[in-house]
Specification:
Length: about 400
């Protein structure tokens, strides 16, 4: 347990010596295991966790193994209780630097890092074998906490959601995890898991988030299992009414590669089963999305599904190779479809395939665009094999 302490200088817990290990710009790997000091829980409790108000601790160049039960979290920052969701009880200024964190190869682990607190950084780390046959498993998850946080230059491997914001009720009313930078990470799972029984859902999910920058990452290997196979999921969730303020706002997803998946993006304006705020201001730009293939990975092969009319969505300058629709849109009724205001889709290139852009109960092309996206900017796209007159 990392206790609270006086002062704001970091206490560093690390392997010594560090010869032969990656420098500050590098990334740790399982191959470094024989050089790393090891921490492992002897029971079902986390290997490391923070006390209320704990701050300015740094884990560096360590191997942190699975718990005995494989059912809980390996590293826990904050418990997301009301006491630890505001000052002075909220843990803050915590760093995981070039650490190898892993579940059991045979039994897996529910979660690598529970990242609830303020000003938390995970960098240069390798988190793997986070997998379960009975529940969602995440390499890194956060549902409470404030202030900027960052995940950078790390390998994240999990069966459920490799990375997730939201998914549980925050410890304080109105709290939205905010100011995330998610950069230069490799987010994946082994394709060999397809023949095993782990519950697979998606690679990156936002359920309650504000001001998020996702750039320069590689996302790969996602298939139909516990969900429909969308690699990237942005869907506000009010947690059964316990968090009606949940939202997704001001998200930029750029310079990424997304590949080897049943489908690409799933965007939902608001919670379909509970009260939530409406998603707004999402920009998806300058990405390469390919091998979105229903024959290989199952699912529908759609580049993007949009539901219930999110506002201010911009999709531009992406290169896409998918086997299904370009856009699948739904919400409302045929007579009164859910309207997405200020929608922009421009300067993208993709195959048109059979239906291109199609809305629920409507014809492809302009019929669907005019109904679901009135006043949209839909221009300068190359939809290979489609008929321009339909748009």
């Amino acid at each position: 347990v990392w206790p609270a302490k006086a002062g704001n200088r970091y206490i560093i817990l690390r392997t010594a010596p560090t010869a032969g290990l990656p420098d500050a710009e590098g990334r740790i790997a399982p191959a470094h295991s024989d050089k790393l000091a090891k921490i492992q829980s002897p029971n079902s409790a986390p290997a490391l966790r923070t006390a209320p108000g704990s701050h300015h601790w740094r884990l560096m160049l360590l191997e942190i193994g699975p718990t005995a039960s494989a059912s809980g979290d390996i590293v826990v920052f904050g418990d997301s209780s009301p006491k630890e969701s505001s000052s002075p009880g909220m843990p803050h200024d915590l760093v995981v630097d070039r650490c190898y964190i892993h579940g059991d190869p045979a039994r897996g682990q529910k979660r690598g890092i529970a990242m609830n607190g303020a000003s938390i950084v995970v960098i240069g780390s390798h988190i793997s074998d986070i997998k379960s046959t009975s529940q969602d498993a995440q390499a890194v998850a956060r549902w409470s906490g404030t202030r900027p946080f960052r995940v950078e230059n790390s390998y994240l491997e999990a069966s459920g959601e490799n990375f997730m914001l939201g998914g549980a009720t925050p410890g304080a009313t109105g709290l939205v995890p905010s100011d995330l930078v998610f950069r230069r990470n490799h987010v994946a799972r082994p394709a060999a898991w397809r023949s095993e029984k782990w519950v697979v859902k998606n690679l990156f999910e936002l359920k309650n988030a504000r001001r998020v920058l996702v750039e320069g990452n590689l996302f790969e290997n996602n298939w139909v299992d516990g969900q429909a196979g969308y690699a990237i999921v942005f869907t506000p969730r009010g947690e059964g009414g316990a968090a009606p303020w949940a939202t997704i706002e001001d998200v930029t997803f750029r310079y990424n590669i997304v590949r080897n998946s049943s489908a690409g993006f799933n965007l939902l304006a608001r919670d379909s089963s509970a009260v939530s705020e409406t998603m707004r201001r999402v920009r998806i730009a300058d990405n390469v999305i390919y091998a979105i293939d229903r024959a290989e990975w199952g699912g529908n092969g759609t580049f993007m599904q949009i539901g219930e009319g999110p506002s201010e969505i911009t999709v531009e300058h992406n290169t896409i190779i998918q086997s299904g629709n370009v856009l699948t849109v739904y919400g409302g009724s045929r007579e009164a479809p859910s309207v997405a205001e200020r929608f922009v889709f421009r300067n993208n290139i993709s195959p048109h395939n059979q239906n291109g852009v199609i809305g629920q109960g409507l014809g492809m092309g302009s019929d669907s665009i005019n109904a679901f996206f009135p006043g949209a900017l839909f221009l300068r796209n190359a939809l290979a094999g489609g008929r321009a007159s339909r748009y």
